[in-house]
Protein backbone atom coordinates (compact mmCIF):
# COMPACT_ATOMS: atom_id res chain seq x y z
CA UNK A 1 0.00 0.00 0.00
CA UNK A 2 1.12 3.58 -0.61
CA UNK A 3 2.42 5.75 2.23
CA UNK A 4 1.42 9.31 2.94
CA UNK A 5 4.46 10.65 1.02
CA UNK A 6 3.38 8.97 -2.23
CA UNK A 7 2.54 11.23 -5.12
CA UNK A 8 -0.98 11.65 -6.35
CA UNK A 9 -1.90 10.46 -9.80
CA UNK A 10 -2.20 14.04 -11.04
CA UNK A 11 1.30 14.80 -9.77
CA UNK A 12 2.68 11.69 -11.48
CA UNK A 13 0.96 12.70 -14.71
CA UNK A 14 2.66 16.06 -14.52
CA UNK A 15 6.07 14.39 -14.10
CA UNK A 16 5.47 12.12 -17.11
CA UNK A 17 4.42 15.05 -19.25
CA UNK A 18 7.51 17.02 -18.21
CA UNK A 19 9.81 14.04 -18.92
CA UNK A 20 8.35 13.67 -22.42
CA UNK A 21 8.74 17.39 -23.00
CA UNK A 22 12.37 17.29 -21.85
CA UNK A 23 13.12 14.06 -23.66
CA UNK A 24 14.41 12.63 -20.35
CA UNK A 25 14.13 8.82 -20.65
CA UNK A 26 15.26 8.10 -17.10
CA UNK A 27 12.80 10.54 -15.57
CA UNK A 28 10.06 9.07 -17.73
CA UNK A 29 10.84 5.53 -16.50
CA UNK A 30 10.82 6.57 -12.85
CA UNK A 31 7.52 8.45 -13.24
CA UNK A 32 5.91 5.64 -15.16
CA UNK A 33 6.94 3.10 -12.51
CA UNK A 34 5.33 5.38 -9.88
CA UNK A 35 2.15 5.49 -11.93
CA UNK A 36 2.03 1.68 -12.13
CA UNK A 37 2.49 1.47 -8.34
CA UNK A 38 -0.25 4.04 -7.80
CA UNK A 39 -2.68 2.17 -10.03
CA UNK A 40 -1.86 -1.11 -8.29
CA UNK A 41 -2.48 0.41 -4.86
CA UNK A 42 -5.83 1.84 -5.97
CA UNK A 43 -6.93 -1.46 -7.47
CA UNK A 44 -6.02 -3.35 -4.31
CA UNK A 45 -7.83 -0.82 -2.14
CA UNK A 46 -10.97 -0.95 -4.26
CA UNK A 47 -10.88 -4.74 -4.26
CA UNK A 48 -10.63 -4.82 -0.46
CA UNK A 49 -13.52 -2.38 -0.18
CA UNK A 50 -15.61 -4.46 -2.55
CA UNK A 51 -14.96 -7.62 -0.52
CA UNK A 52 -15.96 -5.76 2.64
CA UNK A 53 -19.10 -4.49 0.94
CA UNK A 54 -19.96 -8.03 -0.09
CA UNK A 55 -19.52 -9.20 3.50
CA UNK A 56 -21.58 -6.30 4.77
CA UNK A 57 -24.23 -7.03 2.16
CA UNK A 58 -24.47 -10.59 3.43
CA UNK A 59 -24.81 -9.36 7.03
CA UNK A 60 -27.41 -6.83 5.98
CA UNK A 61 -29.51 -9.39 4.19
CA UNK A 62 -29.47 -11.66 7.25
CA UNK A 63 -30.41 -8.81 9.60
CA UNK A 64 -33.11 -7.60 7.24
CA UNK A 65 -34.58 -11.08 7.14
CA UNK A 66 -34.69 -10.95 10.93
CA UNK A 67 -36.62 -7.68 10.83
CA UNK A 68 -33.69 -5.55 12.04
CA UNK A 69 -33.68 -1.97 10.76
CA UNK A 70 -30.56 -1.07 8.82
CA UNK A 71 -28.58 1.86 10.19
CA UNK A 72 -27.31 4.93 8.43
CA UNK A 73 -23.59 5.63 8.69
CA UNK A 74 -24.19 8.29 11.38
CA UNK A 75 -26.41 5.95 13.35
CA UNK A 76 -23.83 3.15 13.21
CA UNK A 77 -21.05 5.46 14.44
CA UNK A 78 -23.30 6.71 17.25
CA UNK A 79 -24.20 3.22 18.47
CA UNK A 80 -20.65 1.93 18.18
CA UNK A 81 -19.38 4.76 20.37
CA UNK A 82 -22.37 4.42 22.70
CA UNK A 83 -21.63 0.71 23.20
CA UNK A 84 -18.05 1.56 24.03
CA UNK A 85 -19.13 4.15 26.59
CA UNK A 86 -21.67 1.79 28.17
CA UNK A 87 -18.97 -0.84 28.66
CA UNK A 88 -16.74 1.55 30.60
CA UNK A 89 -16.40 1.18 34.37
CA UNK A 90 -17.74 4.72 34.78
CA UNK A 91 -20.50 5.02 32.14
CA UNK A 92 -21.62 8.41 33.44
CA UNK A 93 -18.23 9.97 32.75
CA UNK A 94 -17.89 8.10 29.46
CA UNK A 95 -21.25 9.32 28.24
CA UNK A 96 -20.48 12.88 29.32
CA UNK A 97 -17.36 12.75 27.16
CA UNK A 98 -19.08 11.11 24.21
CA UNK A 99 -18.43 13.24 21.13
CA UNK A 100 -21.48 12.06 19.16
CA UNK A 101 -25.21 12.54 19.74
CA UNK A 102 -28.23 10.48 18.72
CA UNK A 103 -29.07 11.22 15.07
CA UNK A 104 -32.53 12.69 14.47
CA UNK A 105 -33.24 9.80 12.11
CA UNK A 106 -33.56 7.47 15.13
CA UNK A 107 -36.35 9.59 16.63
CA UNK A 108 -37.89 10.05 13.17
CA UNK A 109 -38.03 6.27 12.77
CA UNK A 110 -39.82 5.94 16.10
CA UNK A 111 -42.42 8.53 15.16
CA UNK A 112 -42.87 7.01 11.72
CA UNK A 113 -43.81 3.79 13.48
CA UNK A 114 -46.08 5.61 15.91
CA UNK A 115 -47.90 7.27 13.03
CA UNK A 116 -48.42 4.03 11.14
CA UNK A 117 -48.79 1.35 13.83
CA UNK A 118 -50.30 2.86 16.96
CA UNK A 119 -54.13 2.62 17.01
CA UNK A 120 -54.67 6.16 18.31
CA UNK A 121 -51.53 8.05 17.35
CA UNK A 122 -51.81 6.93 13.73
CA UNK A 123 -54.88 9.21 13.49
CA UNK A 124 -53.11 12.26 14.96
CA UNK A 125 -51.55 15.05 12.92
CA UNK A 126 -47.88 14.98 13.94
CA UNK A 127 -45.49 17.79 13.02
CA UNK A 128 -41.77 17.68 13.72
CA UNK A 129 -41.09 21.24 14.86
CA UNK A 130 -37.29 20.84 14.74
CA UNK A 131 -36.85 23.43 17.46
CA UNK A 132 -39.52 25.91 16.35
CA UNK A 133 -41.60 27.06 19.30
CA UNK A 134 -44.30 29.10 17.54
CA UNK A 135 -46.10 28.61 14.26
CA UNK A 136 -49.10 29.90 12.32
CA UNK A 137 -52.29 27.83 12.12
CA UNK A 138 -55.36 28.36 9.96
CA UNK A 139 -58.40 28.82 12.18
CA UNK A 140 -61.02 28.22 9.47
CA UNK A 141 -62.23 24.86 8.30
CA UNK A 142 -63.45 25.69 4.82
CA UNK A 143 -62.28 28.47 2.54
CA UNK A 144 -64.13 29.71 -0.52
CA UNK A 145 -62.41 31.35 -3.47
CA UNK A 146 -63.81 34.50 -5.05
CA UNK A 147 -65.00 34.25 -8.65
CA UNK A 148 -64.41 37.15 -10.99
CA UNK A 149 -63.16 38.19 -14.42
CA UNK A 150 -59.49 37.80 -15.31
CA UNK A 151 -57.41 40.69 -13.93
CA UNK A 152 -60.47 41.94 -12.05
CA UNK A 153 -59.87 43.43 -8.62
CA UNK A 154 -60.59 41.17 -5.68
CA UNK A 155 -64.18 41.95 -4.77
CA UNK A 156 -64.35 40.00 -1.53
CA UNK A 157 -61.81 39.81 1.24
CA UNK A 158 -60.62 36.31 1.96
CA UNK A 159 -62.15 35.14 5.21
CA UNK A 160 -59.43 32.72 6.15
CA UNK A 161 -58.02 33.57 9.58
CA UNK A 162 -54.71 32.61 11.15
CA UNK A 163 -53.48 32.52 14.70
CA UNK A 164 -50.09 32.00 16.23
CA UNK A 165 -49.85 28.91 18.41
CA UNK A 166 -47.26 27.91 20.96
CA UNK A 167 -45.59 24.62 20.11
CA UNK A 168 -43.17 24.65 23.01
CA UNK A 169 -42.20 21.05 23.70
CA UNK A 170 -42.49 19.24 27.01
CA UNK A 171 -40.05 16.62 28.27
CA UNK A 172 -41.02 12.97 28.12
CA UNK A 173 -38.50 10.67 29.87
CA UNK A 174 -37.92 6.98 29.36
CA UNK A 175 -35.74 4.83 31.60
CA UNK A 176 -33.89 2.11 29.75
CA UNK A 177 -32.19 -0.80 31.55
CA UNK A 178 -29.49 -2.34 29.37
CA UNK A 179 -27.77 -5.58 30.31
CA UNK A 180 -24.12 -5.91 29.39
CA UNK A 181 -24.76 -8.97 27.22
CA UNK A 182 -26.98 -6.88 24.94
CA UNK A 183 -24.07 -4.59 24.12
CA UNK A 184 -22.25 -7.51 22.52
CA UNK A 185 -25.03 -7.98 19.95
CA UNK A 186 -23.90 -4.94 18.01
CA UNK A 187 -25.29 -1.57 16.88
CA UNK A 188 -28.30 -2.89 14.94
CA UNK A 189 -29.68 -4.80 17.88
CA UNK A 190 -29.02 -1.97 20.34
CA UNK A 191 -30.83 0.38 17.94
CA UNK A 192 -33.79 -1.99 17.84
CA UNK A 193 -33.86 -2.07 21.63
CA UNK A 194 -33.57 1.71 21.98
CA UNK A 195 -36.30 2.38 19.43
CA UNK A 196 -38.67 -0.13 21.01
CA UNK A 197 -38.13 1.44 24.43
CA UNK A 198 -38.77 4.88 22.94
CA UNK A 199 -41.85 3.62 21.10
CA UNK A 200 -43.39 2.27 24.27
CA UNK A 201 -42.50 5.37 26.28
CA UNK A 202 -43.83 7.76 23.67
CA UNK A 203 -46.89 5.64 22.92
CA UNK A 204 -47.98 5.42 26.54
CA UNK A 205 -47.00 8.94 27.52
CA UNK A 206 -48.48 10.59 24.44
CA UNK A 207 -51.67 8.53 24.54
CA UNK A 208 -52.33 9.56 28.14
CA UNK A 209 -51.65 13.20 27.39
CA UNK A 210 -53.51 13.37 24.09
CA UNK A 211 -56.64 11.75 25.52
CA UNK A 212 -56.85 13.31 28.99
CA UNK A 213 -53.92 15.68 29.57
CA UNK A 214 -54.86 18.78 31.57
CA UNK A 215 -52.41 21.09 29.77
CA UNK A 216 -50.29 21.78 32.85
CA UNK A 217 -46.81 20.75 31.72
CA UNK A 218 -48.44 18.10 29.55
CA UNK A 219 -50.52 18.06 26.33
CA UNK A 220 -54.09 19.36 26.30
CA UNK A 221 -56.35 16.32 26.04
CA UNK A 222 -59.22 15.68 23.68
CA UNK A 223 -61.50 15.77 26.73
CA UNK A 224 -60.60 19.40 27.52
CA UNK A 225 -62.18 22.70 26.51
CA UNK A 226 -60.02 24.91 24.32
CA UNK A 227 -60.52 28.31 22.74
CA UNK A 228 -60.03 31.99 23.34
CA UNK A 229 -62.86 32.21 25.88
CA UNK A 230 -61.84 29.21 27.99
CA UNK A 231 -60.71 29.97 31.53
CA UNK A 232 -57.41 28.24 32.32
CA UNK A 233 -56.62 27.94 36.02
CA UNK A 234 -53.07 27.20 37.07
CA UNK A 235 -52.30 25.94 33.58
CA UNK A 236 -55.17 23.40 33.77
CA UNK A 237 -57.82 23.42 31.05
CA UNK A 238 -61.41 22.62 32.10
CA UNK A 239 -62.92 19.22 31.35
CA UNK A 240 -65.74 19.08 28.81
CA UNK A 241 -69.21 18.22 30.04
CA UNK A 242 -70.22 14.79 28.70
CA UNK A 243 -73.06 14.34 26.22
CA UNK A 244 -75.41 11.49 27.16
CA UNK A 245 -75.67 8.85 24.43
CA UNK A 246 -78.13 5.96 24.73
CA UNK A 247 -77.45 4.37 21.33
CA UNK A 248 -75.27 4.68 18.22
CA UNK A 249 -78.11 4.90 15.73
CA UNK A 250 -77.78 6.92 12.51
CA UNK A 251 -79.84 9.74 14.02
CA UNK A 252 -77.69 9.94 17.18
CA UNK A 253 -74.35 9.73 15.39
CA UNK A 254 -75.57 12.10 12.68
CA UNK A 255 -76.51 14.73 15.28
CA UNK A 256 -73.04 14.55 16.87
CA UNK A 257 -71.22 14.70 13.54
CA UNK A 258 -73.34 17.66 12.43
CA UNK A 259 -71.84 19.62 15.33
CA UNK A 260 -68.33 18.69 14.23
CA UNK A 261 -69.10 19.65 10.62
CA UNK A 262 -68.90 23.33 11.59
CA UNK A 263 -65.83 24.97 13.10
CA UNK A 264 -66.07 27.57 15.91
CA UNK A 265 -66.16 30.32 13.26
CA UNK A 266 -69.30 28.83 11.72
CA UNK A 267 -67.56 27.53 8.61
CA UNK A 268 -68.23 24.09 7.16
CA UNK A 269 -65.43 21.53 7.17
CA UNK A 270 -64.80 17.99 6.04
CA UNK A 271 -65.99 15.36 8.51
CA UNK A 272 -63.37 12.66 8.06
CA UNK A 273 -61.01 10.49 10.08
CA UNK A 274 -63.67 10.13 12.78
CA UNK A 275 -62.50 8.23 15.85
CA UNK A 276 -64.34 6.84 18.88
CA UNK A 277 -61.93 6.34 21.79
CA UNK A 278 -63.23 4.16 24.59
CA UNK A 279 -61.92 2.34 27.66
CA UNK A 280 -61.23 -1.36 26.91
CA UNK A 281 -63.66 -2.50 29.61
CA UNK A 282 -66.42 -0.30 28.20
CA UNK A 283 -65.66 -1.49 24.71
CA UNK A 284 -66.55 -5.08 25.55
CA UNK A 285 -69.40 -4.26 27.91
CA UNK A 286 -71.05 -1.39 26.04
CA UNK A 287 -69.64 -0.41 22.63
CA UNK A 288 -69.25 -3.91 21.21
CA UNK A 289 -72.85 -4.89 22.06
CA UNK A 290 -74.05 -1.56 20.62
CA UNK A 291 -72.12 -1.99 17.35
CA UNK A 292 -72.31 -5.74 16.68
CA UNK A 293 -74.77 -7.03 14.11
CA UNK A 294 -75.62 -10.52 12.88
CA UNK A 295 -75.16 -10.83 9.14
CA UNK A 296 -77.57 -12.79 6.90
CA UNK A 297 -75.22 -15.80 6.91
CA UNK A 298 -75.33 -16.05 10.72
CA UNK A 299 -71.93 -14.53 11.48
CA UNK A 300 -71.39 -11.34 13.47
CA UNK A 301 -69.86 -8.07 12.28
CA UNK A 302 -68.24 -5.85 14.92
CA UNK A 303 -67.87 -2.07 15.07
CA UNK A 304 -70.75 -1.50 12.65
CA UNK A 305 -71.26 2.26 12.55
CA UNK A 306 -73.70 4.39 10.55
CA UNK A 307 -70.76 6.57 9.42
CA UNK A 308 -67.12 5.63 8.66
CA UNK A 309 -65.44 5.62 12.05
CA UNK A 310 -62.52 3.91 13.80
CA UNK A 311 -63.16 2.51 17.27
CA UNK A 312 -60.01 2.72 19.41
CA UNK A 313 -59.53 1.15 22.84
CA UNK A 314 -57.51 3.25 25.28
CA UNK A 315 -57.18 2.90 29.06
CA UNK A 316 -56.63 6.68 29.16
CA UNK A 317 -60.40 7.15 28.80
CA UNK A 318 -62.46 7.04 31.99
CA UNK A 319 -64.90 4.15 32.29
CA UNK A 320 -68.44 5.19 31.44
CA UNK A 321 -67.17 7.76 28.94
CA UNK A 322 -65.97 7.86 25.35
CA UNK A 323 -64.43 10.51 23.11
CA UNK A 324 -65.71 11.06 19.59
CA UNK A 325 -63.89 13.44 17.30
CA UNK A 326 -61.95 14.24 14.15
CA UNK A 327 -58.50 12.72 14.52
CA UNK A 328 -56.88 15.08 12.05
CA UNK A 329 -57.96 18.07 14.16
CA UNK A 330 -55.59 17.16 16.99
CA UNK A 331 -52.19 18.78 16.55
CA UNK A 332 -49.10 17.17 18.05
CA UNK A 333 -45.64 18.72 17.93
CA UNK A 334 -42.67 16.42 18.44
CA UNK A 335 -38.91 16.69 18.50
CA UNK A 336 -35.83 14.75 19.46
CA UNK A 337 -33.89 15.26 22.65
CA UNK A 338 -32.47 18.77 23.00
CA UNK A 339 -28.88 17.59 22.93
CA UNK A 340 -29.52 14.09 21.55
CA UNK A 341 -27.77 12.38 24.45
CA UNK A 342 -28.49 9.21 26.40
CA UNK A 343 -27.67 9.71 30.08
CA UNK A 344 -26.64 7.27 32.79
CA UNK A 345 -29.24 7.22 35.59
CA UNK A 346 -29.07 6.38 39.28
CA UNK A 347 -32.83 6.62 39.76
CA UNK A 348 -33.45 2.87 39.63
CA UNK A 349 -31.41 -0.16 40.57
CA UNK A 350 -31.81 -3.45 38.75
CA UNK A 351 -29.77 -6.63 38.52
CA UNK A 352 -26.04 -6.38 38.83
CA UNK A 353 -25.36 -6.88 35.14
CA UNK A 354 -27.80 -4.15 34.11
CA UNK A 355 -27.21 -0.43 33.89
CA UNK A 356 -30.02 2.10 33.64
CA UNK A 357 -30.03 4.96 31.15
CA UNK A 358 -32.31 7.91 30.56
CA UNK A 359 -33.59 8.96 27.15
CA UNK A 360 -35.40 12.30 26.92
CA UNK A 361 -37.84 13.08 24.15
CA UNK A 362 -39.97 16.16 23.65
CA UNK A 363 -43.57 16.56 22.52
CA UNK A 364 -46.75 18.56 23.03
CA UNK A 365 -50.27 18.61 21.64
CA UNK A 366 -53.72 20.18 21.72
CA UNK A 367 -57.11 20.02 19.97
CA UNK A 368 -57.25 22.57 17.17
CA UNK A 369 -60.70 23.76 18.20
CA UNK A 370 -63.46 23.07 20.69
CA UNK A 371 -65.85 21.49 18.17
CA UNK A 372 -63.43 18.80 17.04
CA UNK A 373 -63.97 16.42 19.98
CA UNK A 374 -66.86 15.56 22.28
CA UNK A 375 -66.92 13.62 25.54
CA UNK A 376 -69.78 11.11 25.58
CA UNK A 377 -71.54 9.59 28.56
CA UNK A 378 -72.04 5.98 27.46
CA UNK A 379 -73.04 4.55 30.85
CA UNK A 380 -76.61 3.94 29.62
CA UNK A 381 -75.91 2.94 26.05
CA UNK A 382 -78.13 0.11 24.80
CA UNK A 383 -77.13 -2.98 22.77
CA UNK A 384 -78.00 -2.97 19.09
CA UNK A 385 -81.15 -4.93 18.24
CA UNK A 386 -82.96 -5.71 15.02
CA UNK A 387 -86.01 -3.54 14.62
CA UNK A 388 -88.99 -4.31 12.42
CA UNK A 389 -91.04 -1.19 11.93
CA UNK A 390 -94.16 -0.91 9.84
CA UNK A 391 -94.23 2.30 7.88
CA UNK A 392 -97.26 3.45 5.95
CA UNK A 393 -96.41 4.42 2.41
CA UNK A 394 -97.01 8.10 1.71
CA UNK A 395 -99.85 9.06 -0.58
CA UNK A 396 -98.84 9.11 -4.22
CA UNK A 397 -98.13 12.56 -5.62
CA UNK A 398 -100.84 14.34 -7.62
CA UNK A 399 -98.34 16.65 -9.34
CA UNK A 400 -98.92 16.47 -13.10
CA UNK A 401 -96.90 19.41 -14.41
CA UNK A 402 -93.68 19.83 -16.34
CA UNK A 403 -90.57 21.42 -14.95
CA UNK A 404 -89.24 22.11 -18.44
CA UNK A 405 -90.08 21.49 -22.08
CA UNK A 406 -87.56 21.81 -24.90
CA UNK A 407 -87.90 21.00 -28.60
CA UNK A 408 -84.37 21.11 -29.93
CA UNK A 409 -83.35 24.74 -30.30
CA UNK A 410 -86.85 25.97 -31.17
CA UNK A 411 -88.24 29.03 -29.44
CA UNK A 412 -91.55 28.43 -27.73
CA UNK A 413 -94.12 31.18 -27.74
CA UNK A 414 -94.85 32.11 -25.07
CA UNK A 415 -91.77 31.14 -23.03
CA UNK A 416 -92.26 27.92 -21.13
CA UNK A 417 -94.02 28.07 -17.78
CA UNK A 418 -95.37 25.11 -15.83
CA UNK A 419 -98.87 26.55 -15.71
CA UNK A 420 -99.06 27.39 -19.45
CA UNK A 421 -100.31 24.50 -21.58
CA UNK A 422 -100.50 25.93 -25.14
CA UNK A 423 -97.48 27.00 -27.25
CA UNK A 424 -96.43 27.64 -30.84
CA UNK A 425 -93.12 27.28 -32.61
CA UNK A 426 -91.76 27.32 -36.16
CA UNK A 427 -88.94 25.44 -37.84
CA UNK A 428 -87.36 24.58 -41.15
CA UNK A 429 -85.77 21.42 -39.75
CA UNK A 430 -86.95 17.96 -40.72
CA UNK A 431 -86.62 16.81 -37.10
CA UNK A 432 -86.04 18.14 -33.58
CA UNK A 433 -85.39 16.36 -30.29
CA UNK A 434 -88.17 16.58 -27.71
CA UNK A 435 -87.23 16.70 -24.02
CA UNK A 436 -90.00 16.96 -21.42
CA UNK A 437 -88.91 17.07 -17.73
CA UNK A 438 -91.63 16.24 -15.17
CA UNK A 439 -91.88 18.32 -12.01
CA UNK A 440 -92.27 15.08 -10.04
CA UNK A 441 -89.88 12.22 -10.78
CA UNK A 442 -92.62 9.59 -10.39
CA UNK A 443 -94.90 11.14 -12.97
CA UNK A 444 -95.15 9.49 -16.41
CA UNK A 445 -94.97 11.27 -19.75
CA UNK A 446 -96.64 10.33 -23.01
CA UNK A 447 -95.85 12.28 -26.20
CA UNK A 448 -97.63 12.15 -29.55
CA UNK A 449 -97.34 14.13 -32.76
CA UNK A 450 -99.95 14.59 -35.48
CA UNK A 451 -99.04 16.05 -38.84
CA UNK A 452 -101.34 18.28 -40.91
CA UNK A 453 -102.98 15.36 -42.74
CA UNK A 454 -102.41 12.44 -40.41
CA UNK A 455 -105.43 10.45 -39.40
CA UNK A 456 -103.82 9.35 -36.12
CA UNK A 457 -101.13 10.81 -33.88
CA UNK A 458 -97.76 9.05 -33.93
CA UNK A 459 -96.07 8.25 -30.58
CA UNK A 460 -92.80 10.01 -29.79
CA UNK A 461 -90.19 8.73 -27.33
CA UNK A 462 -89.19 11.37 -24.80
CA UNK A 463 -85.61 12.44 -25.48
CA UNK A 464 -85.71 11.30 -29.11
CA UNK A 465 -86.25 13.16 -32.38
CA UNK A 466 -89.70 13.91 -33.77
CA UNK A 467 -90.23 14.16 -37.56
CA UNK A 468 -92.11 17.17 -38.88
CA UNK A 469 -94.27 17.41 -41.97
CA UNK A 470 -94.86 20.53 -44.00
CA UNK A 471 -97.42 22.74 -42.30
CA UNK A 472 -98.76 22.69 -38.76
CA UNK A 473 -97.77 19.73 -36.53
CA UNK A 474 -99.54 19.21 -33.25
CA UNK A 475 -97.26 17.91 -30.48
CA UNK A 476 -99.05 16.85 -27.31
CA UNK A 477 -97.20 16.09 -24.08
CA UNK A 478 -99.42 14.38 -21.53
CA UNK A 479 -98.23 14.23 -17.90
CA UNK A 480 -99.89 11.72 -15.56
CA UNK A 481 -99.24 12.13 -11.85
CA UNK A 482 -97.91 9.32 -9.67
CA UNK A 483 -101.36 8.71 -8.24
CA UNK A 484 -102.49 7.68 -11.75
CA UNK A 485 -105.41 10.09 -11.74
CA UNK A 486 -104.26 13.68 -12.05
CA UNK A 487 -103.01 14.62 -15.52
CA UNK A 488 -102.25 17.62 -17.66
CA UNK A 489 -101.55 17.99 -21.39
CA UNK A 490 -99.23 20.54 -23.00
CA UNK A 491 -99.85 21.31 -26.70
CA UNK A 492 -97.24 22.79 -29.01
CA UNK A 493 -98.15 23.67 -32.58
CA UNK A 494 -94.99 23.44 -34.63
CA UNK A 495 -95.20 24.91 -38.13
CA UNK A 496 -92.64 23.60 -40.56
CA UNK A 497 -91.84 25.62 -43.65
CA UNK A 498 -89.57 24.71 -46.56
CA UNK A 499 -85.90 25.35 -45.86
Please summarize the sheet with the most strands. Answer: 5 strands, mixed
Q: What is the number of beta strands?
A: 22
Q: Whole-number average pLDDT?
A: 80
- Give helix % range: 25-40%
Low-confidence stretches: 132-163
Q: Estimate the strand proportion.
A: 25-35%
Number of domains: 3
Amino-to-carboxy terminus distance: 101 Å
What's the alpha carbon Rg, rounded to whole Å?
39 Å
The total count of helices amounts to 9
- Overall shape: it is flat
Structural class: alpha+beta
Which secondary structure elements does this structure contain, and how are they paired or packed?
Blueprint: H1 9-22, H2 25-65, H3 73-86, H4 91-96, H5 104-117, E1 125-128, E2 134-138, E3 162-166, E4 170-179, H6 180-183, H7 187-212, E5 243-244, H8 250-260, E6 274-278, H9 280-291, E7 293-294, E8 300-301, E9 310-313, E10 321-326, E11 330-335, E12 342-344, E13 354-367, E14 373-377, E15 402-407, E16 422-427, E17 431-438, E18 444-450, E19 458-460, E20 465-467, E21 471-480, E22 487-496
Parallel strand pairs: 1-11, 5-14, 6-9, 16-22
Antiparallel strand pairs: 2-3, 4-13, 6-10, 7-8, 10-14, 11-13, 12-13, 15-17, 17-20, 18-19, 18-21, 21-22
Helix pairs in contact: 1-2, 3-7, 5-7
Amino acid sequence: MRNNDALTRDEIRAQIQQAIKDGNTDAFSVAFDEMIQNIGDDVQQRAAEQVEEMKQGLDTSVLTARGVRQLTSKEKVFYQKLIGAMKEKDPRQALNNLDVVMPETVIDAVFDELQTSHPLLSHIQFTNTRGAIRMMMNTNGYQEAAWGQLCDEIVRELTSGFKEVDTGLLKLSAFMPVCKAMLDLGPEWLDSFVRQVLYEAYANGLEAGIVAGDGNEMPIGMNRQVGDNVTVTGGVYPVKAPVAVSDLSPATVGNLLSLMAVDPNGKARNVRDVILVVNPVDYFQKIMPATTMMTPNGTYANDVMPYPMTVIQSPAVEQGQAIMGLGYKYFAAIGSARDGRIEYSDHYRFLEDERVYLIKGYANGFPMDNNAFFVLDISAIQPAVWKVQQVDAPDASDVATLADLRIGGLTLSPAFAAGTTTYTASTTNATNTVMAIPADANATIEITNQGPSDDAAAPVVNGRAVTWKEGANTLIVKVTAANGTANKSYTVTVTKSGG
